[in-house]
Amino acid sequence: MKLYLDYKKLFNTILIFFILLMPFGVFPPLQRIVGETISYAETAEEIKNKINQKNLDIVKLEEQIKTYQNELDVLGKQKNSLSVSLKQLDLTKKKLMTDISVTQNKIDKTNLKIKELNSDIGDKQNSIANNIDSIAMEIRKTNEFELKSVLQTVLSEGDFTTIWNDIDNIVTVREKIRENIIELKEVKGDLEDTRGETVKAKNELVALKQELADQQKIVIQNTNEKNKLLTQTKNNETNYQKLVKEQLAKKLAFEKELRDYESQLKFILDPSSLPNAGVLSWPLDNIFVTQEFGAKTGPHRTYASGHSGTDFRARTPLPVKAMAEGVVKGIGNTDTSCPGASFGKWILIEYNNGLSSTFGHLSLIKVAEGKKVGRGEVVGYSGGTGRVTGPHLHVSLYASGAVKVETVPSVSCSGKILKQPIAAINAYLDPMYYLPPLR
Question: Which CATH superfamily is domain 236-434 in?
Answer without folding.
Answer: Glucose Permease (Domain IIA) (2.70.70.10)
